[in-house]
Write a structure and sequence with these properties.
single chain, 327 residues, two-stranded antiparallel sheet, 13 helices
Length: 327
């Protein structure tokens, strides 16, 4: 089929209002369609980098202090600034405590429905993840990279919670959700996939059946897998999706009998459509297994979070009243 013979592109209506809108095709003068896929947001990554950069920069600046023995620290010129009760150390402690308490507002937001006016669950989840990843580094600098007694127990629990939070976030992203963080119904998922495949067919000139065949990931079921093997299979599927996208990019970048070569923004947007379709297909196939593992994760995650909360509150109370720290 030559470009001149290519049939008119059909506009695909978006799925239900709560579902994330599929990338649409917008008609422009001259009969050519322009892809308008959903763009990626790097706000979370920027926030994580900035929040991690602050404690890392302070650690690099005060490396001579942090590597010194306890006796040498007392005579170090930076001791008044970097000790836990010092200007920098105490400021980071206050920041860490505020972030830690803020993180506990996320489960409260999930449990209390009338708090919906504070924002969608998806946004709360993103802030929760950013705070959880930055918190161990901030608290470590506040403690002067020394973890003795109760603060050591609290830090260990906090570190485990942070690591498990990475796993939890990975599982969370493998459940189909709308923009507000609510899980999609199967009807919404079907509508989303139909729109993605139709738009891909219009962009590439392939028939929908060919697109589904080309983007198919490992079809083996997840039934009967234990939690560890389920997560490993998820990672394998993610790697396979990356390989399929790389192969599709090479094919679409060169002309053949089916279509002209795609370049620049057109190629990037088409690959983004393909990525969304494969991701949604994978999420549906592993949905039951993901929910099961996510339930196990909640059971393991909660005790460490409660332990960290208890240790942090006791530490703050002791530091303020017995240790004589004031503001």
């Amino acid at each position: 089929m030559t470009p001149a013979q290519k049939p008119a592109l059909k506009l695909v209506p978006p799925p239900a209002a709560e579902a994330p809108a599929a990338p649409a095709l917008k008609a422009v003068p001259g009969g050519k369609a322009k892809l308008q896929p959903k763009g990626r947001s790097y706000g979370d990554l920027v926030a994580i980098v900035i929040s991690m950069a602050i404690p890392v920069a302070i650690t690099a600046w005060g490396a001579s202090y942090y590597f010194a023995t306890l006796g040498m620290r007392l005579r170090h010129p930076l001791h008044s600034l970097l000790k836990p009760a010092g200007t920098v150390g105490l400021s980071l402690g206050v920041l860490g405590f505020a972030l830690f308490l803020f993180m506990w507002l996320y489960p409260f937001r999930k449990a209390v429905k009338w708090l919906a006016w504070t924002g969608p669950l998806g946004s709360w989840m993103r802030v929760h993840v950013v705070a959880g990843l930055a918190l161990p580094a901030i608290v470590a600098v506040h403690a002067g990279w020394r973890f003795d007694g109760l603060i050591g127990l609290g830090y260990l629990a906090m570190f485990v919670v942070s690591l498990s939070g990475i796993v939890g976030r990975y599982l969370y992203t493998h459940i189909p959700r709308s923009r507000n963080g609510l899980e999609l119904s199967m009807e919404e998922v079907i509508g989303e996939r139909r729109a993605l495949i139709t738009n891909l067919a219009a962009a590439t000139g392939m028939v929908p059946a060919e697109i589904e065949r080309r983007l198919a990931v490992d079809p083996r079921p997840y039934d009967g897998l234990d939690p560890i093997r389920t997560i490993l299979r998820m990672v394998q599927d993610d790697v396979q999706r990356w390989r399929i996208l790389a192969e599709l990019k090479r094919e679409l970048s060169r002309p053949n009998a089916g279509h002209a070569a795609l370049t620049g923004t057109e190629l990037r947007d088409t690959l983004r459509l393909a990525r969304e379709e494969m991701k949604l297909t994978q999420q549906v196939r592993m949905l039951d297994a993901t929910r099961k593992v996510f339930g196990y994760w909640h059971v393991a995650h909660r005790p460490f979070a409660i332990t960290a909360l208890f240790a942090v509150i006791v530490h703050v109370v002791v530091a303020m009243w017995i240790g004589g720290i004031g503001f």
